[in-house]
């Protein structure tokens, strides 16, 4: 396969060089913003395949060499200069209104497509074009909020990437210690949940009999993992991450019953919002069940990245629907740097935090009516159930900072994944266990305990 890919890569490079000669392009010339925008115009008007490949390559390589400020100018130039063809769209709309038939509907649809989408398609012709475009969208995402013109351009990327990175094109591979070193190095670098402290740490996550790591790849990004999941095989649902990450792990269970997804990382920032995690988890479950038939339970041990920030916002409000005066007293204990060593603080914090966490997941919503926690949206949208809240599940500095140590288990019950997914997508319903729902309350249950500390 590597030989075949190399052959076609060399062939495409030869076509590119011939195309460069056809359109009179010079080599190794630094391109300014105006040059790149001019080449983009030429690319959109050019019909020849070879010259188009050459133009696309020069645009992408020229863009990659720009300063951050000039990259912003190019992106805005693409966004504003390659919108839908207004006159054509106007005529197509008038024709459809006059005769609303299937033919005119098709013409209207075609006319409504921004030229940006065709520009991106043509840029993708260049050798390494897909990878360069993923990096370009990463740049776009960093600038989108500060540049309103870029919002529509980002929608174009989402539309195209959703098709290009369709599940049918993705390949699931198990990563082990025999995987090529360049891919293993990227796993270390891209791990976004629990940092991997070098090669020895990675080996501890790959070699034991009770550990697995799976990743999705795309043919156009052969050595670039898109998303990967780390799995521990256990005989119970874990409540804390540190025992899973410790350097010396105990003996692997002979017949593990539980597969724990303890880290799911999106390796490509430029693919944020392109959903394929759902299929990753389902296929990993299928592979694990086939390999280890004793597995019956599939859960995550997940961080809660927005919980501490949400609590801080609620505490800053004069009137919070979530907090009572007793809650505020208990949460004040968390302001002390070494609050876990303070007598009674851990018990008081647990009594306050768990009901507030239930409120956070079940009551706190975004403007669109979804849970405000991004990890919750990911798993609930993939059909999982919020199974358990784990106080001090992550005692690392990062865990304490982002969630006061809270972690949660999401359960992937194979018989309910589809119905949970549909209820969440259609109605915003959060699938949650009875144990989690019972932790909701309307007034503080910490008051009696706090009073006993006085």
Short description, anyone?
The chain has 21 helices and eight strands.
Written description of the protein model:
The chain is built from 21 helices and eight strands. With 454 residues, the chain is an alpha+beta fold. It has three domains: 163 residues, Malonyl-CoA decarboxylase, oligemerization domain (Butyryl-CoA Dehydrogenase, subunit A, domain 3, Up-down Bundle), CATH 1.20.140.90; 133 residues, Aminopeptidase (3-Layer(aba) Sandwich); 151 residues, Malonyl-CoA decarboxylase, catalytic domain (Aminopeptidase), CATH 3.40.630. Helix 13 links the parallel strand 4 and strand 5. Helix 2 runs antiparallel to helix 3 and helix 5 packs antiparallel against helix 6.
């Amino acid at each position: 396969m590597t030989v075949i890919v190399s052959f076609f890569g060399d062939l495409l490079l030869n076509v590119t060089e011939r195309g460069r000669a056809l359109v009179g392009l010079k080599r190794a010339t630094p391109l300014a913003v105006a040059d790149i925008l001019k080449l983009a115009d030429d690319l959109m008007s050019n019909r020849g395949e070879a010259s188009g490949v050459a133009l696309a390559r020069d645009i992408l390589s020229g863009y990659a060499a720009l300063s951050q400020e000039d990259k912003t100018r190019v992106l805005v130039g693409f966004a504003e200069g390659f919108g839908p063809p207004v006159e054509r769209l106007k005529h197509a709309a008038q024709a459809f209104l006059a005769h609303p038939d299937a033919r005119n509907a098709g013409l209207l649809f075609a006319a409504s497509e921004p030229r940006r989408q065709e520009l991106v398609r043509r840029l993708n012709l260049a050798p390494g074009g897909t990878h360069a475009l993923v990096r370009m969208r990463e740049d776009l995402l960093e600038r989108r909020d500060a540049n309103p013109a870029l919002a529509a351009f980002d929608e174009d990327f989402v539309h195209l990437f959703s098709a290009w990175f369709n599940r049918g094109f993705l390949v699931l591979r198990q990563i082990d210690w025999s995987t090529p070193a360049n891919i293993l190095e990227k796993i270390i670098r891209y791990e976004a949940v629990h940092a991997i402290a070098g090669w020895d740490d990675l080996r501890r996550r790959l070699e034991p009999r009770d550990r697995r790591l799976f990743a999705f790849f795309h043919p156009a990004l052969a050595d670039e993992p898109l998303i990967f999941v780390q799995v521990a095989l256990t005989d119970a649902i874990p409540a804390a991450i540190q025992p899973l990450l410790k350097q010396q792990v105990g003996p692997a269970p002979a017949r593990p019953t539980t597969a724990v997804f303890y880290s799911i990382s999106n390796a490509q920032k430029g693919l944020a919002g392109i959903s394929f995690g759902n299929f990753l988890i389902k296929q990993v479950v299928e592979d694990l069940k086939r390999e280890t038939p004793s597995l019956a339970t599939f859960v995550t041990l997940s961080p809660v990245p927005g919980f501490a920030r949400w609590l801080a916002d609620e505490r800053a409000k004069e009137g919070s629907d979530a907090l009572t005066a007793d809650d505020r007293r208990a949460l004040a204990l968390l302001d002390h740097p070494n609050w876990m060593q303070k007598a009674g603080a851990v018990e008081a914090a647990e009594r306050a935090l768990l009901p507030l966490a239930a409120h956070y997941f079940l009551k706190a919503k975004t403007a669109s009516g979804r849970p405000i926690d991004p990890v919750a949206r990911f798993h609930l949208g993939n059909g999982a159930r919020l199974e358990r809240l784990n106080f001090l599940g992550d005692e690392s500095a990062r865990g304490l900072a982002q969630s006061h140590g809270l972690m949660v288990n999401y359960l992937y019950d194979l018989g309910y994944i589809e119905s949970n997914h549909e209820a969440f997508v259609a109605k915003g319903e959060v699938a949650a266990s009875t144990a989690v729902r019972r932790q909701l309350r309307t007034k503080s249950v910490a008051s009696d305990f706090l009073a006993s500390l006085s």
